[in-house]
Amino acid sequence: MGILTRKYIAYVGTYTNENDSDGIYTYNLDMKTGNLEHIYVTSKVDNPSYLHISSDNKFLYAALENEVYNGQVGGAVAAYIINQGTGKIDLMNVEITKGKSPCNVCTTSDNNYVFVANYEGGSVSVFPVNDDGSLKELSIVLKHEGVGPNKIRQSKPHVHYVTLTPDGKYLCVVDLGIDSVKFYDHDRKLGSFTLNEKLSLKMKSGCGPRHMEFNSNGQNAYIVTELSSEIAVALYSKENQTFEVVQYISTLPKDYEGENTCGAIHISLNGNFLYASNRGHDSLAIFKIDRVSGKLELLGHSSSYGEYPRDFVIEPTGNFLFACNQNSNSIVTFKIDLNSGKLEALKKSVKVPSPVCIKFISLESNYE
């Protein structure tokens, strides 16, 4: 009789125009040691930087971060099917986003739509999804307008992140170029989107919002600002139609005077801690979350043990954190202290060319 076990697979998105990367790298995770064992790499695709896995773990979508793709202006998004036995991914199709430099992807919980954030395009591309997980043709492009005070980084809209509210009711679009988080009503019958002005948020001038994550209760959102190196804590109420910032807190030590841009934020599995990556200070900031107010308290920092930690991930059991150090071509493993939130670097670094993003899935295996 077979014994049912669980294995954990990691997918790493990279920049292929740097350091001879071949695309998306796949690893097995040893849950006892935190070691990543390389098992596959995709056939070469152009700049599969940011990855997203469907809620049923069957499909992987990759933003192909280019300004021109196959001779057409704009980047693209690729759809892969995940082998449920091995974790290997196979390409199904690629669709053009009609927006330059796509840098983030998300799906609805039912996997009927894929949304792509186009950084240079200042827009969101909307793709309906076929039953087999492949992408239909582009249906809508949501285009932003405006500028911010930073003449170099905010001369136009720069959509950097797209996600859904935990209740699935609204599409949230984080725009670094115009210091805004915009909410869109989604009419699924008509396939249309309408800007919700009441919920949409204008943030601190020049802060440059980059990524956003909701906590498990669905009432608090955490927005990392790339240009001002802060976390904004926002309260979301579907009933009252409100979304408002209640706290800004720095990701840096008080005595740090060097250059820095924030990368990503993620919340611990137990909901008690939040982590943010600092590029320049080259660290992971550690915050405690007040479970009543949702506000943050800075506990300290851990070195990322590499240069320019762009993104990181907490694997599905919540015990390990993996940081992608883009400029030093490495992924470093950290053990999470579940009581204090502190990070212990295990120095189990793996070499990956220009890693940008890492995502995990868990798969069941049947052994005799």
Could you name the key traits of this structure?
single chain; 368 residues; mainly beta; 0% helix
Task: Tell me what the structure shows.
By secondary structure, this protein is mostly beta strands. The strands form eight sheets. Strands 26, 27, 28, 29 and 30 form a five-stranded antiparallel β-sheet that branches. Strands 3-2-1-31 form a four-stranded antiparallel β-sheet, with no helix packed on it. A hairpin with a 5-residue loop joins strand 18 and strand 19. It starts with a strand and ends with a strand. The model has no long low-confidence stretch (mean pLDDT 95).
Portion in strands: over 45%
Radius of gyration: 19 Å
Query: Span between N and C termini?
Result: 6 Å
The stretches of 5 or more residues where confidence is low (pLDDT under 50) are none
Task: Quickly give the structural class.
Answer: mainly beta
Number of helices: 0
* Rounded average pLDDT: 95
Question: What is the strand tally?
Answer: 31
Largest sheet: 5 strands, antiparallel
The best one-word shape is globular
- Report helical residue fraction: under 10%
